[in-house]
Amino acid sequence: MHSGFVALLGRPNVGKSTLLNRVVGTKLAIVSDKPQTTRHRILGVQNYPDGQIVFVDTPGVHRPLHRMNVRMVDAALGSARDADAVVMLVDVTEKTGAGDRYMLTTLQPVNVPVVLALNKIDRIAKPRLLPLIDWYGQQYAFAEIVPLSALTGDGVDILVQTLLHLLPEGEPLYPEDYLTDQPERLLAAELVREQVLRHTRNELPFTTAVLVDQFQEEADERRLLRIYCSILVERPTQRAIVIGHAGQMIKQIGTAARHEIEATFGRQVYLDLHVKVREDWRENERILDDAGLSR
Predict the structure, then answer these.
(1) pLDDT truncated to tens, each residue of the chain (295 aa)?
(2) What separation in angstroms does the CA of 73 have from each of 50, 59, 76, 110, 220?
(3) pLDDT score of 116
(4) Is 195 exposed, middle or buried (0-12, 13-18, 19+ CB in 10 A)?
(5) N or C: at which end does the chain have fewer Cβ atoms within 10 angstroms?
(6) pLDDT at 222
(7) Are 269 and 262 in contact (CB under 8 A)?
(8) Mapped to the 3 state alphabet, what secondary structure does the chain carry?
(9) How far apart (Å, rounded) are the C-alpha atoms in residues 25 and 13?
(10) Residue 282's closest CA among 35, 66, 75?
């Protein structure tokens, strides 16, 4: 048996959360085409016949401009330092540049095997992979280089088997039925934020957060779950965007989010959303704590 922690590391929007959801077989991390969608460390446990892998999804590594971003990058790099192996994800549809070189420098303090995962191969011609494999192979001594598509699953099994052989021998770290360390409150807030990102498109990618004000569970698991959330924005004009004309936008966000939460928790949900203006919330330590961003 081989068991251990594997940190998923990479620049924003390279597909780390899509890969996490793929390998654990359920939705633990929200996904959008907006950079910096993942803001905190997300643990997902998957068992295999010959071992257990504890995958750790991390925020995208980028230049931090706010306290929120500093926490995000610290969480990513800290997870890499504490892991038994690291998967560095790269989006093969993007040209290599300064951001990729910076990512490679963050691997210098890492003293565990690093696997390079060339993601999104379903979106390029196969001959384009060879120059990328050659370039990255010259930049860092990767334990393995695995082309894959987290979206379609192509190559993911090869990555898993590669990681199992690299992890230390040992018994599973978590019980067989353990899936994640994410509190239900935080998961509900993230599912709401996913719909805010989806419905407001490019208007509010980084300036919103969702806090759960109340999370009321009735004793009978089959009965109603009541969730009251605040959607934080930085300016009154952004509040107007989220609410929409005659409240249509917030209604669409709420309906879509409620369906996602019900599907995730397997019970009926009453969801109440309010939009609040909080200038500079990305610099507010208390709000960042409430939003689940570790210090």
Answers:
(1) 999 999 999 888 899 999 999 999 988 888 877 766 777 788 999 999 999 999 998 877 777 667 777 787 777 777 788 899 999 999 999 998 888 898 898 888 889 999 999 999 999 998 899 999 999 999 999 999 999 999 999 999 999 999 999 999 999 999 999 999 888 999 999 999 999 999 987 676 667 899 999 999 877 666 789 999 999 999 999 999 999 999 999 999 999 999 999 999 888 999 999 999 999 888 888 888 888 776 6
(2) 33, 7, 5, 15, 40
(3) 97
(4) buried
(5) C
(6) 66
(7) yes
(8) CEEEEEEEEECCCCCHHHHHHHHHCCCCCCCCCCCCCCCCCEEEEEEECCEEEEEEECCCCCCCCCHHHHHHHHHHHHHHHHCCEEEEEEECCCCCCHHHHHHHHHCCCCCCCEEEEEECHHHCCHHHHHHHHHHHHHHCCCCEEEECCCCCCCCHHHHHHHHHHHCCECCCCCCCCCCECCCHHHHHHHHHHHHHHHHHCCCCCCCCEEEEEEEEECCCCCCCEEEEEEEEECCHHHHHHHHCHHHHHHHHHHHHHHHHHHHHHCCCEEEEEEEEECCCHHHCHHHHHHCCCCC
(9) 20
(10) 66
Instruction: Scan for tokens 């919103």, then name that residue.
Output: 208
Identity of the residue numbered 276 = K
- Tokens linked to 205: 């990618």
Count CA atoms closer than 13 A to 280's CA, side-chain side.
Answer: 4
